[in-house]
Request: fold
Amino acid sequence: MNVHRAGRPIIVVCAAGLALLFVGLAHAGDDVSPARQRELVHLVRQDCGACHGLTLQGGLGAPLTAVALRDKPADGLAATILHGRPGTAMPPFKSMLDEAEAQWIAAQLLKGFPREN
Reply:
């Protein structure tokens, strides 16, 4: 019985953390207009697709599918988008994107990137 009680705070903390993550993802991109979202979809499909495959299934770069990214945190993905990966072919996009746009892209990648309209 005491083993379950001792584990309860960890479960509560994990559940609270997951709830905050999902709330954050739900609001990621609230500051990104629908017109800019369409531009970002095009950017990801074309610019990111050049290395990660036009369908984001992988190429020179790793796949960017929801399945491939399922264990990656959104903030880490956004940081990689903005700052690149030094020593690799992944360039930084901070000259073209702001934090909200990188967060929006990361959230879209984690739930399955939309098709271009």
Summary: Residues 2-111 form a domain with the Cytochrome Bc1 Complex; Chain D, domain 2 fold (CATH 1.10.760.10). The CA atoms of residues 44 and 105 lie 8 Å apart.
